[in-house]
Structure formats: C-alpha cells, structure tokens
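Internal ticket - ligand job 357, S-adenosyl-L-homocysteine:
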Amino acid sequence: MTTKTHLLSLDYTALIHLCEQLDVSPVHVKKIMGKVFRYGEFDLENIPDFPKKLLFWLQENTSLALPEIIANQQAEDTTQKLLMRMADHKDVESVLIPAEGRMTQCISSQVGCAIGCEFCLTATAGLTRNLTTAEMMQQVLVAKQTLGYFPRNIVMMGMGEPLHNYEHVAQFVRMLTHELGMALSPRRVTISTAGLVPAIYRLLDDDLPCSLAVSLNATTNETRNQIMPINQKYPLEDLLAVMDKYVNARNKKRILIEYVLLAGINDSPDDAKRLRDIALSLGSTVNILPFNPFMGSRFTRPSDEVVDMFRNYLNDAGVVAVVRISKGRDISAACGQLKTEVNQRAADIRLQRRQTS
Ligand code: SAH
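stdout (structure tokens):
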C-alpha cells in the first residue's frame, strides 16, 4: 500500500501552496487542474512549458493509482454498477445511471455506514471507515475511464452518510465545482443525508456549493424512530426546523425530499397527507423510492397500485413527486447489494475449496 499523497487530494489551495513552496509560477495550477480534473488525464509530462521542478516533485511525491474495478455489472437499461477496491482492499460501490439526457454518478462517501437505518443494506455492516477526498475523486475518475467522459451529475447517495464525513465531502464538493476543474454547477452536485441536523446548519453556514437531499422517510416521530434510529437524536421537529431555515436562506436553496416507501409502515393516506403538508411548506420535490428488498429484511415493497396512489395524491395536491424505481433492478441496484453478492461469491468459493481439500 502506497503512503504517497494522492494527486487527486490536491485541491486549488494545496496546488497554489505547492507552487509557492517550489518557487514556480501559480499559472501552472490552472494547467494541472485542467489536465487532471477537466480532461481526466494524468500524464503531466505532456503539459507544455511545465517546470521540471514541479513535474519531478509531483512524480516523486504523489500517487496516481486508481482503484481496481473488481465487478462491473450492466443492467438492461444500461445502468452500470461498479465495485471498486481501494488501496487498503476495502470495497466500495459506485453506480452510473443514464437519465434525462445526462449521466449521473452515485458516489459512496464511506466504507459502510454508522447511521443504522433499518431498511438499508449498507447499515447491516456498520461503519468501517470514512473515504478520503481523493477516494471519492477516484470514483469519478474511474467513471471517466469506464465511460470515456465525465459524468455531469453527482449524487452522494451511495454507501455511507456524507455529512458524517463532512470535511472530506466538503472538499470533494468544492473540487467538483471549481471553475478550473470539472466546473460542475452546484445544482448538479447533491449531498443526501439521513438528517444530521448540526451538520445541515454547518452546510448552510459554509454555503457549500451543492444541493441538498434529505431522506425524510417518515412524517411522525413514532414511525421515524422505528426505521431511522438517528431520529431519536435529531427528532423530526429539529430536522424540519433546519430544513425550513435552509430553504429560506438568503440565497434561496431548495431541498429534495427522499421517501423510501415501506408497505404498511409509511404508505398510508395519512402519511401522504402529512408528507404533502411538509413538501408544500418547504417547496420541495419528493422522490419516492419504493423499498428495494434484500435478504433478512423485515420490510416489503408496497404494491404498484399503492405506490401510484401515494404519488398521485401528492401530485394532485400540487407537489412534484417522482417515483424512482431503482435503476437496473436486474442487477440488484439497491445500495450495497453488489458488494454483498461479490462477498457471497467469494465465501462460496472458499467453502468449495475447503470441502474439496
Ligand atoms: N446516508 C445518505 C445517503 C445514502 S442512502 C442518506 O440517508 O440519504 C441513499 C438513499 O437510498 C436514501 O434516501 C435512503 O433512504 C435510500 N435507501 C436506502 N436503502 C434503501 C432500500 N433498501 N430501498 C430503497 N431506498 C433505500
């Protein structure tokens, strides 16, 4: 395992600082960022008029390694799920979703997750560690190599709770939106959170250039406590208060509400009514995510009729609500499932070996 700094961890400020230290002009920062973050290329020796001193320093002190793709599953709808192995052999998933004329990449922010939502497969493994900024950027670079172009929409809806890894995620967001790099519009970079209230206040104070999605998933404390233990720490009234503050902030930010629909838990007409009131008061769009079942889970997906009724109720009441059927269901698109399948296969192979030896 290499201990070198990864080239992808060097943001604008770090590169400016490096140029100062090496006593070379800061104009080269633009060249590096253009090459690496705009074109996704690492061959710095081909940059015209690039000081040897800077090139040697980068070659000596930084790593350009990208994670190995250990599984790449393509669904019928061309959604691709990539399982990537990080330098310490921890595996993370990233999903490439073609939708609405552009490619969206779903990024993981942690190996595992500590939040413990009852309906989430990633939660069952607990948290192993945070991903670094470079490791999140590496997922984007691997996507670029796989697709031949950069995804232009990034959602942090993969494994992990992004706001639980605030510093690295904030740096990642700033790198994605930096004008000398990928220059993504802040509207096209979305942090999705289970509702870490203090971190949402921080997001607001820092004015991070990104959009926010909140996994609300329930409209009463009673139900939310049942399915999301985080609600005991940050109850609904506190979460709704910070969301209200966020949408009424000086620069008028919007919040997307995510709502995992679980049969018999949060899919009643009363749930739809309460969700309507919340969405209308925040001016939010709602993404309805019918539950993606996995082995050992106590929840079930509501019937298509119930899903439609729930959506129609919201739409009729003037709320923009969209049903997000997990893309690529034929390749088990629910978060964490690819990793589980690969691990299961590895366990089967070990078992077979043991039986035949
Ligand atoms: N921790 C962050 C981001 C990861 S989860 C968050 O909670 O928002 C991304 C989205 O997938 C969340 O809205 C979550 O509620 C949803 N989700 C998790 N498990 C799911 C499942 N089994 N079926 C459908 N949606 C699920």
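Auto-summary: DSSP finds twelve helices and 14 strands in the chain. The pocket of S-adenosyl-L-homocysteine is lined by residues 119-121, 157, 161, 192-194, 215, 217, 258, 260, 289, 291-292, 334-335 (CB under 6 Å).
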